[in-house]
Amino acid sequence: MASAFRCVGTVARRSWSACGGVRHLRTSSPGSSASAARASFAGCASSRATAGSRRRQQHARAGRTVGRLPRWRGRRCVTDAQRSRDDNGAGVGVGVGVRGYPDVTVALPVLDEESHVDSCLAALDVQDYPRLVEVLVVDGGSSDRTVDVAMRHPRVRVVENPGRTRPAAMNVALREASGEVVVRVDARTVVAPDYVARCVAALESSGAAIVGGPMRLAATTPAERGVRAAMTSRIGGGPAEFRRDAGPPRFVDTVYLGAFYRDVVTGLGGYDEEFGGNEDAELAFRAQRAGGVYLDPAIRSSYAVRGNLRALGAQYFRYGRARAGTIRKHPSSLAPRQLAVPLLLAGVLSPWRRSVLASYAGLVVARSALEARSDPPAATFMAAALPVMHGAWGAGFVQGLGRGFAVAARRAPSRTRLPT
């Protein structure tokens, strides 16, 4: 099955390469190359149709359930008047090659992100995708100047998020978006100029329900660099593929942020608002039956890490609690690696806690010593960040499981009541 999936990705990537990518369709020479660009688009559409047929055959042979494959929509076309103006050299930047490109809405959940939202939106202002129609800033009731800063940027539309959480914000975005494709971006993230274009290209080439890139971490201070080293290490971040830049495009468990056709995720039921975190991973688990989740390292962005250990601990506590919720809802999503931290906490509470703590401390010191070779100031913060991350995640995980069992017990009918 894995070989079939790799074959699917190879066929799709070759098809997209033959088309020259998204930016190939936007001409830089007005008038002279407009017709050539449209001819290239026509040939590209034919190649995509062939690749789509091959993908469906490959999926069928692999026994994989395939949802609605994303496709370029012919109903969203430039008018004849626009086409004429393009031939005369006017409006080439948007008109040529736009036929069939899906409209895109960027969804940006925010809550008190005044210090980060400006740089995030500035990166969205310079996207090279021609059909980015709006940026939905979904505000959960910010008490700072987040909304005022956001309104300075073009294409921004602010909507309220009464639920205040990220999954609630994304469901608001699904209802309010005017674009066919929704690209999620977080306020602490700065995306590359071709981010939206590459997300749309990956949706088309892969046939996946959700696409995205790896989580690249931006850090400047020693504390931030230490946290970054902890999050990207095997001991801190585990084997999660979306934390790795290397490798070819491939199908994975989950991706950072994510882009998708709006009706696909709506058909999956949207985001589960019971989750205060990990909502993207829970959605990705459901998406595995509707086309899968596709990671393309060429989809580039950078996330500003938290250098404050208290904020880092709160973040990882939410992650652990939400992961427990995902496992309660989808027991088959449990991976053995997710039991490592709870087992570590159990060992700390056991009669062998001294040996467990000594072994863990040795592991942290050894990994921090490796970091000290390249960045000595960051190594100290890495050694402090790892126990915070593990302890907070494990505590959140245990609380999440306990809360779930308590709720289930309250909802279950009493088995001791005698029939009347």
Task: Give the SSE layout.
Blueprint: H1 2-19, H2 34-62, H3 80-87, H4 92-95, E1 104-110, H5 114-125, E2 132-139, H6 146-150, E3 156-160, H7 166-176, E4 181-184, E5 189-191, H8 195-206, E6 210-213, E7 216-218, H9 222-232, H10 234-237, E8 250-252, E9 256-261, H11 262-267, H12 279-287, E10 293-295, E11 301-304, H13 309-329, H14 340-348, H15 353-372, H16 376-411
Parallel strand pairs: 1-2, 1-4, 2-3, 6-10, 7-11
Antiparallel strand pairs: 4-9, 5-11, 6-9, 8-10
Helix pairs in contact: 1-2, 1-8, 9-16, 13-16, 14-16, 15-16
Notes on the structure:
The N terminus and C terminus are likely disordered. The strands form two sheets. Strands 3-2-1-4-9-6-10-8 form an eight-stranded mixed sheet, with helices on both faces. It has a three-stranded mixed sheet with strand order 5-11-7. It is globular. Helix 6 links the parallel strand 2 and strand 3. The chain has three domains: 94 residues, no CATH class; 208 residues, Spore Coat Polysaccharide Biosynthesis Protein SpsA, Chain A, CATH 3.90.550.10; 84 residues, no CATH class. With 420 residues, it is of the alpha/beta class. The chain starts with a helix and ends in a 9-residue tail after the last helix. The protein has 16 helices and eleven strands.
